[in-house]
Sequence to fold (294 residues):
Amino acid sequence: MELRGSIVALVTPFKENGDVDFDKLGELLDYHCDNNSGGIVILGTTGESSTLTFEEEEKMVEFSVKRVNKRVPLIVGSGSNETEKAVRMSKKYSMLGADFVLVITPYYNKTNESGLIKHFTMVADASICPVIMYNVPSRTGMSMSIHALEVLSNHPNIWGIKEASGNMSYAAKVSRLLSKDFHMLSGNDDIIVPMMSIGAEGVISVLANIAPKQTAKLCALCLDEKYKEANKIQMDLLPLINNLFIEVNPIPVKEAMNYLGYGVGGYRAPLDYLTESDRKTLCAEIDRVKELIF
Fold:
């Protein structure tokens, strides 16, 4: 299944009592299937996966696989800092029908290079569907070495990498490894155009939760190598993108979605609501660009 363009890193909607809101989840899945998203990620960082129980995650995967029904690729976060757990979840979710699994580097118990290679190799060997590695040092405290990536790029079940370090020098080194069998996606909304200009095939996007059509258009222009036009959209949206990270993700994007009427509910602890001053700043920026994102 082809994976490119704007891929939304979907929030997990919650009811007032804190339960996963499956009715709202279904609405969001339909919305993105119908509004140009090139794929959907569930159980990622933006989806507050670290606060979900295994039972909730399994139910969300079963529900999402059925609801999306192959309209777009469905990517499921299955990473863990425990290799055996990542193996179990990747195998389970791929058997339930995920099109790809997204696997983060180990966190807290950071590993050495050989351990990192073993970690992803074991996951890729176990998963039925292709694996996307996820490099986000700001969350995990470690970055994948280029040598480890070079080794892992040759695994037949590793599709590529979500590169979210924000380091263009590092990304340029990753781009030298890209091929028809090893791909890269940007993990940062603020540098979609630069990342795609050096070989990324799209973005796993927080912004796409509220601006799916514009994010998709930006990516489509880049895929057509119309970078000047794409950069105009990037620059127009950059203040909004920056405000979506005025606090730790996904606090601002959920606040933005609720302000726009999506009704996705609150957060699970330890996440908490925006301060009133940050909320006013975010909402003012949304009002400024409303015509652009709808």
Q: What stands out?
A: The chain has one domain: 5-224. The mean pLDDT is 97. The longest helix spans residues 276-293. The domain at 5-224 is CATH 3.20.20.70 (TIM Barrel).
